[in-house]
Automatic annotation (TrEMBL):
Official protein name in the record: Gluconolactonase
Gene Ontology CC terms, in alphabetical order: extracellular region
Protein species of origin: Pantoea coffeiphila
Keywords: Secreted, Signal
Signal sequence, renumbered to the chain: 1-28
Listed InterPro entries: 6-blade_b-propeller_TolB-like (IPR011042), MRJP/yellow-related (IPR017996), TAT_signal (IPR006311)
Subcellular location: Secreted
Main location: secreted
Superkingdom of source: Bacteria
Length: 390
């Protein structure tokens, strides 16, 4: 049996979505999806996009293949071209080198209220593409890195010990509210809660059923594509927090979407089994590579196979807010300060006028409401606490 990583799995899903022999997932009739605009083109495949308040765009660039060199983080310059950021050894790591103070594999790039850039570095590569040794993080290689969006100065690096990141754990995404940082672990399954002021960290719901991928939810398309091979699907992956910080939401790409009040996550007196009693199942989403949430609590799912961005309201109403055959493998979306939804697409879309930039980032201007659902703006948390003096 062959074990496939998330990266290989999503590549196979994309190939399947392009096959006319396979049925596409049906979508209920609704209002016309909003028009897509090409916001940027990149020479490298991006799975994450984030923008500062003055619309400086950053891309997270995962190392998916051996045959194409890529930096890990890029910033769009005044001419519209993307340049490695911060433009030094942080973007020059190669397999076999020390990954302690370099980007190895960025899985999440995000910008919050203070306009700094936060990166989740998983510290390892796909065993299905790279060597088995490259699939195990070196000590200290799995980390969070905060950068100044203008200068590229490294402001902070957070690393966790084996009690928070045991063998097999894989940090995936992050969200802030106040001084509290939340992380999803898509390797073993779990939620990490870190207080930026006290430095205290909790690992919650580790390996519980509510943070595991649901084999029953795997699209039937997978069996058609890879027969009897074994898939190691990511566990708790997608992560969002409401603007008031009350609810934390998460899901594996397979779904379902869960939530819990953050007060319970922070309650050290609760064991994981007790904590699990406070978890609520919210929605059975289609297979999704990424998501985001607006300030009104709507979740936007980037559906891997359907070519849809599906909107889920807090009341449980759904609508396809964007849809296109070009939305093949959309991933980590981002809502900018000026209320645009940015969507990176991991399938190359060649253009004869720009053959060197085959990867597209789309944008959708968000209205005040869609399909009767009020639409909000960005969820920014609040400014991170000041850096400690030295």
């Amino acid at each position: 049996m062959i074990a496939l990583s998330r990266r290989s799995l999503l590549i196979n899903l994309a190939a399947a979505s392009l096959s006319s022999a396979l049925p596409r997932i049906s979508v209920a009739a609704g209002p016309t999806p909003l028009p897509l605009k090409v916001a940027a083109r990149s020479p490298w495949m991006a799975n994450q996009v984030a923008l500062t308040r003055d619309n400086v765009m950053f891309l997270g660039l995962p190392r998916y293949t051996k045959d194409k060199s890529t930096p890990s983080l890029a910033r769009r310059d005044a001419s519209g071209k993307f340049q490695p950021f911060p433009g030094n050894a942080w973007n020059e790591w190669q397999p076999g080198k020390d990954g302690t103070n370099a980007f190895v594999y960025l899985n999440s790039v995000h910008i919050f209220a203070d306009d700094t850039v936060w990166c989740v570095d998983q510290g390892s590569l796909s065993a299905g593409v790279f060597s088995a040794a490259d699939a195990v993080p070196q000590p200290g290689a799995q980390k969070l890195v905060q950068l100044d969006a203008r200068s590229g100065e490294i402001l902070r690096i957070l690393r966790f010990d084996e009690t928070i990141l045991p063998a097999g754990a894989q940090m995936n995404d992050m969200r802030f509210h106040g001084s509290t940082l939340y992380l999803s672990d898509s390797g073993l399954g779990g939620i990490i809660v870190h207080d930026m002021q006290s430095g205290r960290t909790l690992r919650r719901l580790s390996g519980a059923s509510v943070v595991k991928a649901s084999a029953a939810k795997i699209p039937s398309i997978l069996a058609h594509v890879k027969g009897g091979k074994t898939f190691h699907l990511p566990n708790s992956d997608l992560l969002e927090i409401t603007a008031d910080g009350k609810w934390l939401y998460w899901a594996a790409p397979t779904g379902p979407l869960y939530r819990i009040e953050t007060r319970w996550l922070k309650d050290r007196s609760l064991t994981d089994p007790q904590l699990e009693q406070h978890v609520e199942q919210v929605y059975a989403n289609n297979f999704a590579g990424g998501c985001c949430m607006d300030s009104r609590g709507n979740v936007y799912f980037s559906e891997t196979v359907t070519g849809n961005i599906t909107l889920l309201s807090p009341e449980g109403k759904t609508a396809v807010i964007a849809s296109s055959p070009s939305l093949i493998r959309p991933d980590g979306t981002f809502i900018s300060a000026d209320r645009k939804l940015y969507i990176p697409v991991k399938q190359p879309i060649p253009d004869a006028s720009s053959p060197d930039t085959p990867f597209v980032i789309y944008s959708v201007a968000l209205p005040e409401s869609f399909a009767g659902i009020p639409i909000g703006g960005a969820v920014e948390g609040r400014e991170s606490p000041p850096l400690p003096s030295h």
